[in-house]
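Exercise 7b. Backbone tokens:
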């Protein structure tokens, strides 16, 4: 199975902490700070939930994550929040619900070009009219090619990562008609956190 994070789940936070420090977590916390009170939020691929620890009950969160191991870790961390956990593959999951915000925290970097665009298109259908897409991920142009290669090599061995290289995620989101509303950068521009308006 592609993108199987079960094996790496217990070590994931330690590995990212060693390589990036708090940067990945901070970039996801920034997204959470952009959420409006009393809204319906869908988080896809939230992993162990480390970045969402301490999130208040101000939002109603649906936490969709394919890895059973990741979701079990997240359940312990988000015990104080109003969260519905769904252990599902995003591409297989069907719902009639619409959300005020869809959060993609280092999720889109897992996929090849085709799935990247399928995921963005699917998010569009999940958003309410005024809904927003919130994305934290790597900027391909600002990421050191050796780091890019090493990350892909590591996760292709331990998680059977589908992606073979970083793609221009921002460009693909804009191509799908979203409009960039707010953004923040960290790690010398390598990591972006952005809020996009629904087309
Ligand atoms: C690179 S990790 C990021 C985890 C977390 N957001 C973080 O930064 O610490 C990607 C996450 O997406 C999840 N994932 C990958 N493909 C998925 C899919 N098709 N449906 C749902 N979750 C998926 C993985 O299980 C993993 O937890």
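Sequence design result:
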């Amino acid at each position: 199975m592609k993108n199987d994070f079960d094996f790496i789940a217990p070590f994931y936070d330690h590995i990212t902490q060693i390589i990036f420090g708090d940067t990945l977590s901070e970039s996801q916390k920034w997204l959470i700070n952009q959420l409006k009170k009393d809204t319906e939020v869908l988080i896809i691929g939230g992993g162990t939930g480390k970045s969402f620890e301490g999130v208040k009950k101000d939002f109603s969160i649906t936490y969709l994550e394919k890895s059973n191991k990741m979701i079990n870790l997240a359940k312990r961390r988000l015990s104080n929040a109003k969260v519905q956990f769904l252990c599902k593959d995003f591409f297989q999951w069907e719902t009639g619900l619409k959300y005020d915000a869809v959060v993609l925290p280092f999720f889109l970097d897992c996929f090849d070009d085709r799935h990247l665009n399928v995921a963005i298109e699917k998010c569009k259908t999940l958003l309410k009219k005024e809904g927003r897409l919130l994305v934290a991920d790597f900027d391909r142009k600002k990421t050191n090619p050796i780091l890019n290669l090493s990350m892909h090599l590591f996760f292709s061995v331990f998680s059977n990562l589908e992606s073979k290289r970083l793609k221009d995620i921002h460009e693909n989101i804009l191509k799908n008609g979203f409009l960039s509303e707010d953004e923040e950068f960290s790690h010398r521009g390598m990591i972006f956190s952005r809020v996009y308006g629904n087309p």
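Instructor comment: The first helix runs from residue 9 to 20. Helices lie at 9-20, 23-33, 68-77, 113-126, 145-159, 169-175.
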